[in-house]
Every structure is written in C-alpha cells, then in structure tokens.
Amino acid sequence: GESVGLHLPTLSVQEGDNSIINCAYSNSASDYFIWYKQESGKGPQFIIDIRSNMDKRQGQRVTVLLNKTVKHLSLQIAATQPGDSAVYFCAENSFSSSNTGKLIFGQGTTLQVKP
Amino acid sequence: GAGVSQSPRYKVAKRGQDVALRCDPISGHVSLFWYQQALGQGPEFLTYFQNEAQLDKSGLPSDRFFAERPEGSVSTLKIQRTQQEDSAVYLCASSTPIGANYGYTFGSGTRLTVV
C-alpha cells in the first residue's frame, strides 16, 4: 500500500544503534506532548507522553526530552530494532479550560532500520 | 473488539458522490475525535464529540463535511459532493474523559480516494 511516510524527512539507522528523532513544536502554551508511531496502513500508536512540568521521561527503550526554552521535543529509541521502522509524529496539546483535547501533529519523520 | 473499529477500510468515490464513514469507538469511551491525514502529512483535527454532543467542529474544512454521534457511541463522518482534495485517510480516535486519561486510541482509518 501507499507509504504514510512519503515525502517526510527520513532517518536511517543500523539495527542495534540508538535513534534520535526531533520535533519543533509551535505553541508556547502547549503543556502536553505525545509521540506516536504509525506503520503503513495503520493508525497512530501511542508511544510515550510528557507534561510541560517535566524535562525528561523514560519508558521501555524510549526516552522523551522536552526543552521548553527552544520549543523542542526529542524521542530517543535505544537499541533500535527492525520493528521500530515506521513514521514517528510528535503531537502537542494545551489543556486550557476551553480545550477539548485536540492534538496538533508535527510533520513526522520516517525511521528506517537497516538489518 | 478491544480497539477502535473503522469501516470501510477503503472507499473509492466518484467526484460529486456522497460518502459515509463509520467509527466504532472503544466501549465506554466518552470522547471521540475525527482526524484527516493527507498523504505524507500528519493527522489534522476535524471534530470532537463528548458523548453525543459535538463540542468542537472547528477543523471541518467546509460545510460539505458533517459528523454525528446520535447515541454517544458509534459516529459517522459524512462528506457530501466529494472533491478530489477530499482524498485522504480519515482517522477516528476515542479516549476516556479529558483529565482522566489523555491517551487516544486511534483506529486504522478509512482511506478515501475520490476519482
């Protein structure tokens, strides 16, 4: 089928290496951030999230770093595996009183893992 | 089922035809979202329901787009007089109430192609 990642920036890594995917967000009022993984033909899958009162959060093999000063978010994947090959999106939200929980998605990055 | 179910998976429509896309959210999920994902882009918010109430429809691109969730469960996104620019994947997501669980669960989407 058609690739979700067509025309997106691509990061190519060797299996077993660490991967770092970056994202610049737009709204300084955003206070909640999520990383999603999307495989071809599937919907986005939640990976990890972070609130604006944190700088770092770790999950299983994944770490998210937040730099509010420069409005930058990164996703680190340790010991990258072929199954990690997908398109990765960052998303932001602002939980103001009027907010309905809608997410603003970034452009996305295609991760290719070479065996 | 345990996930968000969308049907049909693929839809080909002739320009000018009306289409209806269905979303079955996870049972008990109060919040339901529709997103549009063009090829090579991140998902873009269309509309949000809390139970049967449509609280935010700011992302609907034109009055040809209409969404409903009459009983607070299944939702339908309807597009009238389809145009080629409507070709995209339409994603549905559901979640427990905002503030209790920020995580979305997305369905696999409906790929609409207008010819």
Structure description:
The complex is a heterodimer of chains A (115) and B (115). By secondary structure, chain A is mostly beta strands. Chain A contains no helices and 10 strands. Chain A has strands at 10-14, 19-24, 32-38, 45-51, 56-58, 62-67, 72-77, 86-93, 104-105, 109-114. Chain B has 115 residues and is mainly beta. Chain B contains no helices and 11 strands. The N and C termini of chain B lie far apart (33 Å). Chains A and B meet through β4, β8 and β9 of A and β4, β5, β9 and β10 of B.
Key terms:
heterodimer, A: 115 residues, mainly beta, six-stranded mixed β-sheet, disordered N terminus, B: 115 residues, seven-stranded mixed β-sheet, four-stranded antiparallel β-sheet, 48% strand, globular
How many helices of chain B? The count is 0
- Rounded to an integer in angstroms, the radius of gyration calculated over CA atoms of chain B is 13 Å
Helix content of chain A: under 10%
For the biggest sheet of chain A, the summary is: 6 strands, mixed
Beta content of chain A: over 45%
Name the helicity range of chain B. Answer: under 10%
Structural class of chain A: mainly beta
Query: pLDDT average of chain B, as an integer?
Result: 93
Instruction: Please mark out the parts of chain A with pLDDT under 50 across 5 or more consecutive residues, or reply none.
Output: 1-5
- What does the radius of gyration of chain A come to? 14 Å
> pLDDT under 50 segments of chain B (min length 5)?
none
Secondary-structure element sequence of chain B? EEEEEEEEEEE
What is the number of E strands of chain B? Answer: 11
Termini separation of chain A comes to: 22 Å
Overall, the morphology of chain A is globular
Main sheet properties of chain B = 7 strands, mixed
